[in-house]
Amino acid sequence: MKLLVSILGLLCLAGLAFWLYNRKRFAWVRLMQQAQAAAEGRDWPRADRLMRQAMRLAGSFSGSTKDFFEGQTAILWSGMLYRAAHLQQAEETLRQGLARLESSCPGHQLLDAGRLIWVDILAEQGRYSEAERIFDKFLRDDPHPGYRAMTIFYLQRLGDLLIQQKRFAEAQETIERCMKLEAEVTHASLRAEGKEPSEYQVISMSLPDYEFCRGRWEDARRLFQEKAEFFERSVTRPDNITFKRTRSRVPLTPLRSGAAS
User: Fold this and answer.
1) Strand blocks (E) in 29-98
2) Which of these, 211, 237, 233, lies nearest to 223 by C-alpha position?
3) For 117-162, how does the pLDDT look when each residue is reduced to its tens digit (9 = 90+)?
4) Model confidence, pTM
């Protein structure tokens, strides 16, 4: 009888712990959603307050679970800080978030998003060599098939980074690799759906940058305009980073042949 009571007591404690965990987790998700909504409305003070609340709640967990929630919170918070132009705070927050999430969940997909935010923060300050080092670890070898889709984003961003430094030959080489990988991934996806890739035309989103690097100004300008219009229809925020970068490139594309500037 005593054993049964002990077992029931343990089950009750386990059930209570599980209930408390879920209650906090759901509260954390709500705070994150509210903060994201505030950021989309560019209400940065409210977004910041909500993220601070989310971080305090994340800190109420224990062990690796605490690192897991704190890491996610910090990475997402850093993206908001970057969009609000608080670059130093964004970088400090991001470094903490990456370290905590990597230690608690090394394969988490948010780590990739965090590294790309880090590249943007560094590039915004002209710290190009530091930004390039982030790519070295992930682009040195041919990526594993299951990781190729994410590798495309790394290559696109690296190409853009090289263009910003006017290293057009290196950028063209990187973009060519990106376009090849895009075609491979797209063809594999079509085959998985039972479709014949040769019946479809694959148009790379990196094509405008490719033509820009080659000095084909008229084609590049037209493609940048088409890409900007595509993002204008697709994105939900006017301050979307990719949209802003694409739109800003359009007027910079020379109308006549000559050295890229």
Assistant:
1) none
2) 211
3) 999 999 999 999 999 988 887 776 555 555 677 888 889 899 999 9
4) 0.71
